[in-house]
Write a structure and sequence with these properties.
The chain has 2 domains: about 130 residues, NAD(P)-binding Rossmann-like Domain (Rossmann fold), CATH 3.40.50; about 230 residues, 2-Layer Sandwich (Dihydrodipicolinate Reductase, domain 2), CATH 3.30.360.10. Helices cover about 30% and strands about 25% of the residues. It contains 9 helices and 17 strands. The strands form 3 sheets. Strands 16-15-14-13-7-12-11-8-17 form a 9-stranded mixed beta sheet. It has a 6-stranded parallel beta sheet with strand order 3-2-1-4-5-6, with helices on both faces. A two-stranded antiparallel sheet has the order 9-10. Helix 4 links the parallel strand 5 and strand 6.
Length: about 375
């Protein structure tokens, strides 16, 4: 098995998740490339060194640029806030290194397109980190929709709502500032995940209308009250290219919701429903059954479903959040090994960011907006 020496930028929530994934992916999926955790980069040398020792990285640095020209670095994972992505991606494209970048790809659709065109022109393996859609249940949902089992899709009702900023005493952060986050707050943070799900499960979005709101106008800053500059919550109505309609809700203020990533898809022959807080189940409604036997059937995930057997052999025993990242790692290694595009690529990340850009225009101008 050949080795692929990985560089990781970022030692936060996602940095640790990617570390765990690279340490376990070889035993889980036995890929043709074995990842080596070569170098960890964070904003300080001391912090990088501490995390590298704790997490099992060979080397560390306080300057991500050291990874660019390092001959011992074969590929890079970018797990930093979106404002940093453009400079990092362009540097690694110039160095000819395959890139995995966390979502959202860019701070704007224009940035995302620039990065997409750069990696495509260079012919480099590239992926964006949309992990929730990789659960066995959501992979099964795609199979059911694509096969026509529930008929033609009529409507999707979806949401991604969490409560990580519901507490008004929580301070301002990079997420609440446009200069360090993006113009899109919850819209860019959580809505991107559920938009990605809509695109994957239903298809391209033709037009939309969006409404967003800042609920908590100020939060405590280092020098006193600081204005919150992007949205806390919002909604979208969608029209898909295939004629289906949909609605999306998104929030970082949804009290009590910890992972409120849900969708309900209605077709001409039935329906499916999914809730990430019960991620090892998919609900299926078959409208062709006898009226006395109609009702949603709970399908517990097991070895017969996509990517489940690699983790365990028991139906209903379940997979969790970190397993989604392991599946991402497997897919990235496959993209690097084969040179083939593996979904979701930067192009797919750009398609999500186009929807977010259209939503910002719609909210600002109070009208329906065509996407793309």
């Amino acid at each position: 098995m050949s080795e692929l020496r990985i560089g990781l930028i970022g030692a936060g929530y996602m940095g640790k998740a990617h570390t765990l994934a690279f340490h376990s992916v070889a035993a889980t999926f036995e890929p043709t490339l074995r990842p080596i955790c070569e170098m960890l980069a964070t904003s300080t040398a001391a912090g990088a060194a501490e995390h590298a020792v704790r997490w099992g990285w060979r080397r560390s640095t306080g300057d991500w640029r050291e990874l660019v020209d390092d001959p011992a670095m074969d590929a890079v994972v970018i797990a930093t806030p979106p404002r940093t992505h453009l400079d990092m991606v362009m540097a690694y494209v110039a160095a000819g290194k395959p890139i995995f970048c966390e979502k959202p790809l860019g701070a704007s659709a224009e940035e995302s397109l620039a990065m997409t065109e750069a990696v495509e022109k260079a012919g480099l393996a590239n992926m964006v980190g949309f992990n929730y859609i990789r659960t066995p249940a959501s992979q099964l949902a795609r199979q059911i929709v694509a096969s026509g089992e529930i008929g033609d899709v009529i409507q999707i009702s979806a949401e991604h709502v969490e409560d990580y900023l519901h507490d008004p005493s929580l301070p301002a952060s990079w997420r609440t500032r446009i200069a360090t986050g993006t113009e899109a707050g919850a819209l860019g943070d959580v809505a991107t995940h559920i938009v990605n799900a809509c695109l994957r499960l239903v298809g391209p979005i033709a037009s939309l209308v969006a409404d967003t709101r800042i609920v908590q106008p100020t939060r405590a800053g280092a020098h006193g009250p600081e204005a919150v500059e992007n949205d806390d919550l919002g909604q979208m109505l969608l029209r898909f290219a295939n004629g289906a309609t949909g609605s999306i809700s998104f929030s970082r203020m949804a009290a009590g919701r910890k992972m409120g990533y849900t969708y309900r898809i209605t077709g001409t022959r039935g329906a499916i429903a999914f809730d990430q807080e019960d991620q090892n189940a998919l609900w299926l409604y078959d409208a062709s059954r006898d009226p006395a036997r109609r009702g949603f059937q709970k399908l517990l995930m097991g070895p017969a479903h996509p990517d489940y057997l690699a983790f365990n052999q028991g139906v209903g025993h379940g997979t969790g959040y970190n397993e989604q990242i392991v599946i991402e790692a497997r897919d990235f290694l496959r993209a690097v090994a084969t040179g083939d595009a593996v979904w979701p690529t930067f192009r797919d990340g750009y398609e999500v960011d186009k929807v977010i850009a259209a939503a910002l225009v719609s909210n600002r101008e109070r009208r329906w907006v065509d996407v793309g």
